[in-house]
Amino acid sequence: MAQRPVAIGRSLGYLAAALLLTLLGVPLLAIFLRAGGGVLPGPSDWAALRFTLTQASLSALFSVFLALPVARALARRRFPGRRMMVALTGAPFILPVVVAVMGLLAIFGAHGLLNTLAAQVGLGPWRIYGLHGVVLAHVFFNMPLAVRMILQGWQGIPSERFRLAAQLDLSPGGVFRLLEWPMLRQVVPGALAAIFAICLASFAVALILGGGPRATTVELGIYQAFMFDFDLGRAAVLALMQTALVAAAAILALLVTRMDGSGTGLDRALPRWDSPGGWRRLADVLGLIAAGAFLVGPLVAVALAGLSGFGDLPPGLWPAIANSLIVSLLSALTTVIVALALSAAQSRVVQGIGLLPLALSPLVLGTGYFLILNPVIVPGRLALPVTVLVNTLMALPFSLRVLAPAYVRVEADFGRLADTLALRGLARLRWLLLPRLRAPIGFAAGLAAALSMGDLGVITLFGSADRQTLPLLMFRLMGAYRTEAAASCGLILMALSFGIFWLFDQGGGKSNA
Amino acid sequence: MLELRAVDIRQDDFRLRADLAVATGRKVAVIGPSGAGKSTLLSTIAGFFRQTSGQVVWQGRPLDGVAPGKRPISMLFQDGNLFPHLDIARNIGLGIAPSLRLSEQDRARVEDALQRVGLGGMGGRTPAALSGGQQSRAALARILVQNRPLLLLDEPFAALGPALRAEMLDLVSDLVDETGVTLLMVSHDPADARRIAQDIMLVDDGHAYPPAEAGQMLADPPEALRRYLG
User: Fold this and answer.
1) Does B78 touch chain A (CB under 8 A)?
2) Cβ atoms A470, A489 nearer than 8 A
3) Strands B207-208 and B199-204
4) Distance CA A138, CA B40 (A)
């Protein structure tokens, strides 16, 4: 029970937790009050619920099933570019959804590469809209995540066991039965649950590829209740439904997921002696190539289409870029400040509170804030501040998971020394915490900035032509069939998202110790 | 005078009692088997660990509830005595002002302290650019500018080789003599104690015994000390 009488702002941490609870609780309360006077869910709402569950289940199953051979190949093969491929699996997390969907359309869409090729031999055309399109996009985003989670499981098997397996000359089947299957039984349920939970709250994918009575998610239903009917009562009911769904799934995922999500050290190439040759080697190679093409292809397609569209840049592009940059930078700043304050509490309870935004989807929060603001002010006038707020809340759990453990480590290593020197408050922040936490702060800020940059969520509720972000502009251009101009926006957006992440991460990376 | 008045330290199964006084300006070696509670005793005096009952008193003033940084104490730990991300001059400067807003005069004091421990002109280097012995010297330079009347050393030189450790102890001994501070120094090695300590405080069997004159203690060790020395 070593106590730390002058630790910086534990009370600051509790204050931040209280603020966070307020920012999450008040909109929820507004939704409760509104839904109380509203209607019971109708048939179309139940259909949305069914579709949400169906697409999330299928997305989770396909993502994990397809990730298995890729993760296995990455675990047991050593090849140049392996490190890059592992890094690539982290990219979809910060890739703007609208850009990825546009890329998928370029490959799998009505006029996409696949249909063009198929038409040559008299097949097709296949359509991408509807359930299979939504699942396809979710697999694009979550298969790499599943690869990371499963690869972490593979890397977690002590290399001594593989050495023993090689010594005993176990067949690939034997290795699978004795080493890999027990690991998969632990890791796969967690991956399924996490991806299921993520896909429940998916909005932008369903917005572009779904829609209609047969392919509407609950999250999309909220948007439609706003935009098409302006039925706030129904939006509130759907928001409640969505919150119950996502919260339950998030809790389930946290309970069965064993990994910490950081995926550090995945690029370590542990020695393996049992890698089978022959057709298995060929299958691994083909699997890796197919996965790589599936992930890179759509992005290349957007980039190529975007380059040719630069002659016809849409009006409103520069203001949208400026808005996106401001929203992104402000979100990164507020996210890091709140995450640091929450970390300062060094308490598991406060950390748990920091994960709560995972249980609330952006549109649910947006609905809540809309209900609060609507009687007071035209909500659209606060489009950008509300977007910053919601993006901050959404990025917080990820940033906190990066910052909080690092904060605890710094205090454990240098807290006593700082205490004997009476370093407290701003002096402790400046001379101890900021320098020691530079790398995780850079990473967390980069995540928050990129997520916010690519966000197409709450801005769709609040935004208007004169208050739009780059993703919203791009979405509108796609809706107006101005594909080339949209692709140009997509290319710029992609560059901004990856660029801003890279800048922050680099800025923190040069840790001087 | 440092007084431990009926101090009782408990943590789980561990218990340590101390009822003793150390006269101002004495150099005391705290020795005893590992796990006896030497470090815990120093942590309690420094304010990192709260005793279950009793009082720590310095010059008649109880220190209970005083934050570690506000106590009249400077302390060196077994490791981590310098911030690796700050250069040596700043590390030492923190001993003058936690804000590191230093006047010209303060800077001169830092440089004097560096000179005194034999690191003149090295203020711009980071700890990683110094050898282990130089890092110890830098930490001692900070102790100098902190200028607190009670110095606690929790085996800060344990990682150094015997010759270097002896050199550090001689330096500590000189600094203590120049400044007149009271020294409590944890040690495993009776030779260290013999080298600089005037008194020996034995910690064993759940008790910290009142310090007694070192030469006499080592010449004719009491039963508990004899058991420890073997």
Assistant:
1) no
2) yes
3) antiparallel
4) 56
Contacts of A428 in chain B (CB under 8 A): 98
Contacts of A432 in chain B (CB under 8 A): 83
Phi and psi, residue A27, nearest 5°: -60, -35
> What pLDDT is stored for residue A267 in this prediction?
64
Lowest mean pLDDT among A39-53, A79-93, A113-127, A446-460: A113-127
3 state DSSP class of A468: coil
Answer yes or no: is pLDDT of A348 > 80: yes
Which residue does chain A place closest to B139, by CA atoms?
A417
Say if residues B49 and A2 touch (Cβ distance below 8 Å): yes
- Choose the closest CB to B86 out of A413, A428, A431: A431
Q: Which residues of A touch B46 (CB under 8 A)?
A: 420
Q: What tokens appear for A345 in the block?
A: 């509490």
What is the chain B residue with the closest CA to A438?
A: B85
Do the Cβ atoms of A424 and B95 come within 8 Å? no
Average pLDDT along chain A:
87
**Does residue A277 or residue A460 have the better pLDDT?**
A460
Residues 203-222 in B contacting A (C-alpha not used; CB under 8 Å)? none
**What tens digit of pLDDT does each residue of A363-379 get?**
899 999 999 998 999 88
pLDDT at A78: 85
Instruction: Locate the domains of chain B by residue range.
Output: 21-49+67-72+150-229, 82-147
- CB burial string B129-148: b at 16+ within 10 A, e below: ebeebbbbbbbbbbbbbbeb
Instruction: Tell me the pLDDT tens digit for each residue of A6-22.
Output: 455 788 899 999 999 99
**CB of B93 within 8 Å of any CB in chain A?**
no
Taking a C-beta distance cutoff of 8 angstroms, is the pair A337, A484 a contact? no
Mutation target for B interface from A4, A409, A411, A420: give the one with most B CBs within 10 A.
A420
Determine the Cα–Cα distance for residues A11 and A14; give it in Å rounded to an integer.
Answer: 5
Domains of chain A, earliest start first: 8-37+310-513 (1.10.3720.10), 43-217+277-303 (1.10.3720.10)
Q: Taking the domain B21-49+67-72+150-229, which CATH number applies?
A: 3.40.50.300
Q: Looking at residue A171, what is its pLDDT? A: 82
All residue ranges of chain B with pLDDT < 50 are none
- pLDDT one-digit tens code per residue, A371-426: 999 899 988 889 999 999 999 999 999 999 889 999 999 999 999 999 999 998 88
* pLDDT tens track for A192-202: 998 999 999 88
* Interface membership of A1 toward B (CB under 8 Å): yes
Read off φ and ψ for residue B102, nearest 5 degrees. Answer: -110, 135
